[in-house]
Amino acid sequence: MEIGASIEWFNYVIRLVICIDATYLKARTIGVLLVAVCKDGNEMICSLAFGFTNFECTESWTWFLKKLCKLIQYLDRVMLVSDWHSGIFNAMEAIFLDAALGICTYHLARNLKKILQAEG
Q: Which PANTHER family does the UniProt record give (predicted)?
C-alpha cells in the first residue's frame, strides 16, 4: 500500500534515496511489515509505502518493490539503501535495474563484527 501524498512529494521534492527494511510483528498479528521511507530536506522521515506479508523472502520483497517501482518517476536517479537481506537484494537487482544500490553502514558494521568474532 502506498501513501499517495508521500509518493507525489517524493517525485517532486524529496531526496531520491529510499531506505527499505522489514520488521517482524509479534503481537496479535504475526507476520512481517515491509517499509520504504525517505528523508526530506529537513531530515524528517517520510513514509512512502508499506506492506504486510507472512515471510521476509525474495517473493515478498519482489511483490513489494514492484508496487513501489510503479510509483516512482525517476528510477534511474534513485538510490536504494537496505541491510542487503538476501530477499531484498535479489528483488532490488531484478526490479530496480538502473538504480544505485547501497548498504546500511550500521548493518554492515554489525555483520562484520559477527564475522570477526566467529573467526577469532
A: MUDR FAMILY TRANSPOSASE, POLYPROTEIN, PUTATIVE-RELATED
SS3 34: strand
Strand arrangement of the beta sheet that strand 17-26 belongs to? 45-53, 30-39, 17-26, 79-82, 100-103
> Strand pairing partners for 49?
2, 36
Cβ neighbors of 68 (< 8 A, separation 6 or more) are: 2, 18, 36, 48, 49
> Residue 103 forms beta bridges with which residues?
82
Domains of the chain, earliest start first: 4-119 (3.30.420)
Query: Dihedral of CA 56/1/47/98: which sign?
Result: positive
Tracing cell 516512482 back to the chain, one arrives at: 72
The mean pLDDT of 25-52, rounded to a whole number, is: 86
Q: Which of 96, 44, 101, 90 is closest to 68 using CA atoms?
A: 96
Q: Which tens digit of pLDDT belongs to each residue from 72-111?
A: 877 788 889 998 888 999 999 999 888 888 888 887 788 7
